[in-house]
Amino acid sequence: IDADGLFRAVISHRDPGIANWLDAGGHERGLLAIRYYKADGAPISTVRRVKLAQLRAALPASTPAITPEARQKSLRERAWSVRRRNSE
Fold first, then answer.
1. pLDDT in tens, 27-82
2. How far is 52 from 37, CA to CA, in rounded Å?
3. What tens digit of pLDDT does each residue of 9-42 get?
């Protein structure tokens, strides 16, 4: 959740260096489902298409960035966690 109380995610074919990146997995189209957990209501969701070169300017300055090395570490840890959970 960003400082302004909004959740933002970036869906892209390439890693934009933004922490909340969702890999499009090569798909040009898809379905987006949103689940609200313990929400007081159902906020109105919006989707905006932004060119990758203009992405940083379209996001709040406080949006966390992530290096390629940190992304790989996070993915390794997530994969390890899934394997551990499935072996218990």
1. 999 998 888 888 888 888 899 999 999 999 999 999 999 999 999 999 999 899 88
2. 30
3. 999 999 999 999 999 999 999 998 888 888 888 8
Distance CA 82, CA 28 (A): 27
Q: Which residues contact 3 (CB under 8 A, 6 or more apart)?
A: 60, 62
Pairing between β-strand 21-23 and β-strand 10-12 as defined by DSSP bridges? parallel
Give one DSSP letter per residue of 47-69, joined into a string: -----GGGHHHHS-TTPPB--HH
Q: How many CA atoms lie within 13 A of 83 on its CB side?
A: 6
Task: Give the pair of three-digit tokens for residue 57.
Answer: 């300017």
CA distances to 7, 9, 74, 75 from 63, rounded to whole Å, are: 10, 10, 18, 20
Structure tokens at 58: 């379209």
